[in-house]
Amino acid sequence: MQKYDVTKTAIKTFSQPEHEIALQTNDLHVYYGDHEQIKGVALQFERYKISAIIGPSGSGKSTYLRALNRMNDEIQSAKVTGSIMYRDLDVNSPQVDVYEMRKHIGMVFQRPNPFAKSIYDNIAFALRRHGTKKKAALDEIVEKTLQQAGLWKEVKDSLSKSALALSGGQQQRLCIARALALKPDILLLDEPASALDPISTSVVEDTLTQLKKDYTLIVVTHNMQQAARISDYTAFFYDGYALEYGATNQIFTQPELKATNDYISGHFG
Ligand SMILES: Nc1ncnc2c1ncn2[C@@H]1O[C@H](COP(=O)(O)OP(=O)(O)OP(=O)(O)O)[C@@H](O)[C@H]1O
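That is the input. Now the predicted structure with adenosine-5'-triphosphate docked in place:
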């Protein structure tokens, strides 16, 4: 599998104080049974930026992203070692309250997965479970998050309508609004637009670009144009390694490694 030299992996980290780090992994490994899938990834994600994770199919992008808020806990054979530092907390520590932690580090999946409930209740459901019961408070958060997700104007007169009656692109923006309702710091997005048509994709991309004012976004994408359009930083994954990481513009115009160059110019995928 390793056509490229992975021993020369040089991962840039941010040493200047102006780069505030929202999340970082150190020597992160993920195993499925005996198989090592993520092989010691050390990356830092800057606050209020969009970082994209690109790389060929099977390189471990989703596995890595899922580790960042412990989604791999739900896979019995998966084991994660190394640290995932969020503020002073190691997300990977067994003492972490995973449910609480996911309020800070939320996730949006590839396929829109709204609940079979009204648009309003898709957002209000988790809020009620976390103790927000007053209608006025719920109304305010529903409106705010739908605005942030760029969906408010389209649905404000039909909040009691079933979420399942929305288009795929609208459903995905509703899932983004739902994730925002718990006021996360960081939003992990796994191929958030790959199941959408080009127009919906463009609306979701605009939404993500708006969101970075208030959130740190980490986005796995197959779509290199998308990474180039929306992200500030790009990490190139290959066979479980993060081979190259840097400013998106630099990665797409002057990558340091042959592997990155070959991938972005379409030689493999
Ligand atoms: N639950 C699992 N159990 C065992 N192996 C898994 C599991 N999930 C993923 N894998 C394996 O881990 C490898 C990496 O998968 P992953 O989905 O992280 O890659 P990816 O880079 O996101 O790929 P794609 O772009 O195709 O989604 C694959 O070989 C896959 O078969």
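The first strand starts at residue 21 and ends at 32.
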